[in-house]
Amino acid sequence: TCSRMEGPSVCVCVCVYPQWASVNRAVLICDQCCSVHRSLGRHSSQVRHLTHTAWPPTQLQMVQTLYNNGANSIWEHSLLDPASAMGSRRKTAVYDKLHPNKAEFIKAKYQMLAFVHRIPCRDEDLLAARDLSKQLHSSVRTGNLETTLRLLSLGAHANFFHPEKGTTPLHVAVKAGQVSQAELLGVYGADPGAPDVNGKTPIDYAREVGHMDLAERLVEIQYELTDGLAFYLCGRKPGDTQDLTELAKAAKKKLQLLSNRLFEELAMDVYDEVDRRETDAVWHTTQTHSALATAAAVPFLPVNPEYSSTRNQGRQKLARFNAHEFATLVVDILSDAWRRQLGNSCAVLKGFAHQPNRVPNVH
């Protein structure tokens, strides 16, 4: 049992003593399953090691609560339903081969969401998605995290602005003091800086009602991207331009010329690359004597079907940057983010201040 999780822990493939967790899926996974989850990309499964990765305590509590209350059944709904045509399909077991058995099952389950109860069908289901998002407003004021995760898995939007109530789900969760609900919404991209009909943000309400710890955590979520980049640099200050080569200066100039939208996309992509590199470092540290160490390498960011082929190619090229080149790029992004904020381009920081981890549509 992991020291950070209370009670016995079992991977969803029934392997005992899992050492990893998928934060947005709220399941615990073993090394083998993790090797596949990492290849899916952060947009499908955000993995963290239970002991070698730093966890915000309230986020860990949220994952543990969902895990203990059977979050896995959300992703395996049709497999567990005797009335379903898929009810006869067998989920993988410990003795099954990683490739292709477990790998194919994991991709179907978490990337394609093949076994989720029901998934909206694009245009004709916009009203249904809207209704799910309204239900989300009601769900997050309670302590029932499983209902919220199920609604999000079906297509409810974490940032849905309720036209009658004039709030987002995060406003509702904060007013009700539901810390774990706020954490879950944050994982799925809820913006702590989004104003309600009165111009107040969830952070404002947390401070007003005296939930100072929650307010501080919401600020962390809001600036997860920029804080994460700064932490990756291990203390390097944004804007430190000494010893820049002419090539680096030219690259910095190109960065400044990007539109807010393109700058936002680049910042999010670099944040994903930081997460890939850090997870890769933890992976190799924990797999020193395992055959999985090299066999399950994730050499560059996996393709995100929601992005254009040009953007996906650019994301994968980030892996070619050596440590110094990549650190320079991170510094430049932090510096330019600050410049744009001072230049009153607040929309930029609102767009990428936190990294959304939403349930992807079926591609």
UniProtKB/TrEMBL annotation:
Signal peptide: none annotated. One of its GO terms (molecular function) is small GTPase binding. ANK repeats lie at residues 165-197. Keywords: ANK repeat, Metal-binding, Zinc, Zinc-finger. The keyword Zinc-finger applies. One of its GO terms (cellular component) is presynapse. Residues 1-126 form the Arf-GAP domain. GO terms for biological process: brain development; regulation of ARF protein signal transduction; regulation of G protein-coupled receptor signaling pathway; synaptic vesicle recycling. InterPro entries: Ankyrin_rpt (IPR002110), Ankyrin_rpt-contain_sf (IPR036770), ARFGAP/RecO (IPR037278), ArfGAP_dom (IPR001164), ArfGAP_dom_sf (IPR038508), GIT-like (IPR047161), GIT_SHD (IPR013724). This is Arf-GAP domain-containing protein. It comes from Electrophorus electricus. The lineage of its organism: Eukaryota, Metazoa, Chordata, Craniata, Vertebrata.
